[in-house]
Amino acid sequence: MTDVLTRAWQSDIAFEFRRSPAAIGAAAVLLLFLAAAVVPDALAPVPVFDLTRIALRDAFLPPAWMEGGSPAFLLGTDAQGRDLLSAIIYGARVSMLVGAASVLLSVLIGVPLGLIAGYRGGWADALIMRAADIQLTFPAILVAVIFDGIARAALGGVAHERLAVPLLILAIGITGWVQYARTVRGATMVERGRDYVAAAALIGRRQGAIMLRHILPNVLTPVLVLATINLAVAIILEATLSFVGLGIPPTQPSLGTLIRVGNDYLLSGEWWIVIFPGIALLLLVLAVNLLGDWLRDALNPALQ
Amino acid sequence: MIAYVLSRLWQAALVMLVVIGLAFVLFTYLGDPVVGILGADSSEAARAAIRSELGLDRPMPVQFLDYLGRVLSGDFGVSYRLGRPVDVILAERVPATVELALAGMALALLLGIPLGILTALRRRSAGAQALLGVSLLGISVPSFFMGVLLIWLFSVTFDLLPSFGRGETVDLWGWSTGLLTLSGWRSLILPAITIAVFQIAMMMRLVRAEMLEVLRKDFIRFARARGLSDRAVHLRHALRNTLVPVVTIAGLQLGSVIGFAVITESVFQWPGLGLLFLQSVAAADVPVMSAYLVLIAAVFVTINLVVDLLYLWIDPRLRADGGLEAARR
């Protein structure tokens, strides 16, 4: 065990990591958010969804350091008297879950399609890449909104409300597959010509096995980098959709929903209700972006 | 070359056909216009009568061709939510979105390109590093939160600029413009910045990366070896070769600006197409949704087509067969 740890510590990637203050800082922030996602109850000062624990007389309290603030509510309270820090911790959890699930979905759609397109070529390749071209004609946000609109019209309001979270994951996941498919396709076309693939085919391995067991492991590095960067994109997309009212409903708010709700109080001067969730979102996205940038450079020495 | 142009045109037509097909499916299967006309408590016989009157009982291909014909003549039906013809509603909203997108785009180009060049040429300087850090912040701020921050700062805290709407507009031969009144300009500032921040940061990073790539090339080294001044090398050789891909980027940026306009319009209650689209999605107003889909697809397909053809025109190396496809990979 210690042997494994020592080797991990001495590996190139760990060395690169120790040398980069930005990566360390980003990883620290991200760990904090991860902790919020895994054990929100341990971190949040108040269980904000326990209706017996919130009181309307606590509504609109400013942050603790301002005049009229209460030390019990570090970042102040919202219109229902909920502790904002706790709401942010639970909200970040929803944001990260939806973001990660969407990225996973994009990978699960894009990687197999890229493998097939790159390995088989021919009409399968043409079909998949044409579909990718058509989708790339539109920005991701519009694809997601259109998808949501279709789901809304097809399901009707109530059913849509109940399925809001899975539908949102589906809408965001669908916007992301093209990049993975393109990247994997390019890498697969290179790998397909290698000797080890010919050798595997020669000993009679089936096409599916060659793609999954032999080629896939060799094309996963760029997928990992893309997934990290796209996690930031997915989190922003989720927040944006929630902000315009097409995402997560206020009963189980994400950071975007919190910003949407808080925005109603901006003009009347209760700025903290909208600004703090926004800053939390910004920190989360910035940390993921920094880590993604660092990972891309660390895994690809040619770029340095 | 001609083969490439033709295949590119064919591809554009194909995309439009797929999108119109999608809009048709939406329009036909999701929104039942009969219920829209008669109300939910109408009798089955009355519905059947209207259905045959509207031609909804004909075979699907016939209906699709009919729909295609109507779309091509700009007839998208009547909005469920507003009860008015969709094409009229869309036409009213176009000027607001176009002015916002162009203002955002102008900011992105006028600031993004020079900053990108500057940070590439002075890549080791503290200023360039700081700008790069700020640009990372710029692409990390979700645009709706940027809008919220700007409203908080300039509308709520300092009370300098309006937080919503377009201000006073002037009707110019059917085009309602906000660019001729003071309140119109004041209203444009915050939304334009909101839409531009991400684009400026993106443009700057892309131009910088492109310029650094070009500066590494052999012809730059030879130009220096010939004893040309820094200024001549940078402007005549490096910049010119950098700007080729920038044309593509700028075109795609324009598309992304229109995409982002949906969000910005929502934050600032800017009465453009994007806000209309969001309201229609929330109300499941299918005729407006499908019309917006077709309209926006036409815009994007045109932009992509023009960018690809421009690229071909600017960079003669790509005119060989398949050159563009190869250069993109």
Describe the structure concisely:
The complex is a heterodimer of chains A (304) and B (329). With 304 residues, chain A is mainly α.
Describe what you observe in this structure.
The complex is a heterodimer of chains A (304) and B (329). Chain A is built from 14 helices and no strands. By secondary structure, chain A is mainly alpha-helical. Chain A has a single domain, classed as Orthogonal Bundle (MetI-like fold). Helix content of chain B is 76%, strand content 2%. Chain B has 13 helices and two strands, in the order H-H-H-H-H-H-H-E-E-H-H-H-H-H-H. Chains A and B meet through helix 6, helix 7, helix 12 and helix 14 of A and helix 1, helix 6, helix 7, helix 10 and helix 11 of B.
Using CB atoms under 8 Å apart, which protein chain pair has the greatest interface? A-B, 43 and 47 residues
Structural domain count of chain A: 1
Class by helix and strand content of chain B? mainly alpha
CATH C-level category of the largest domain in chain B: Mainly Alpha
Round the mean pLDDT of chain A to the nearest integer and report it.
Answer: 82
Layout of helices and strands, plus pairs?
The complex is a heterodimer of chains A (304) and B (329).
Chain A: H1 2-10, H2 12-19, H3 21-38, H4 40-43, H5 84-120, H6 122-136, H7 140-155, H8 157-162, H9 164-192, H10 195-202, H11 207-215, H12 220-243, H13 255-263, H14 272-299
Chain B: H1 2-30, H2 33-38, H3 44-54, H4 60-72, H5 86-121, H6 126-140, H7 143-157, E1 170-172, E2 175-177, H8 182-215, H9 218-225, H10 230-268, H11 273-282, H12 286-314, H13 323-328
Antiparallel strand pairs in B: 1-2
Helix pairs in contact in B: 1-12, 5-6, 5-8, 5-10, 6-8, 7-8, 7-10, 8-10, 9-10, 10-11, 10-12, 11-12
